[in-house]
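User: I'll paste a sequence; please echo it back and then give the predicted structure.

Assistant: Echoing your sequence first, then the prediction.
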Amino acid sequence: MTRRKDTPKCGLSNAEKLALRDAAVVRIRAALAEKPMTIPQLVAELHLPERSTYNCLAHMAEIGVARRTGEKASHNRQFWELGQEDLEKPVRIMPHPQGAVIVPARQVGMWRHWMDEALFGPARRVA
């Protein structure tokens, strides 16, 4: 990912950064008003940096202007559209695999750094 040459890397005041973000939000809103789009599609159409586009979409989602549609394009990219997030939509939680067991780890045959031994003492031998 490369930075556009006409955008300065640093030296902008906070007000200037917010003004740039607001201008990008206006452009993204206009693009999303036509059809739902993925972040790479928005980047290609609006010539914005990908990270800035994602940050603007996250800001728009936070204030209730844009949301993910739930549909995915190629390479698992989500489509974005205008609208407020549906609070009634269930959150998908990944379940643990059946039979998953958490086993406590044991130190076996590993050396201990001399500074660790100086601070915490030698490693305990666990059989």
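The mean pLDDT is 79. Helices lie at 14-34, 39-46, 50-62, 114-120.
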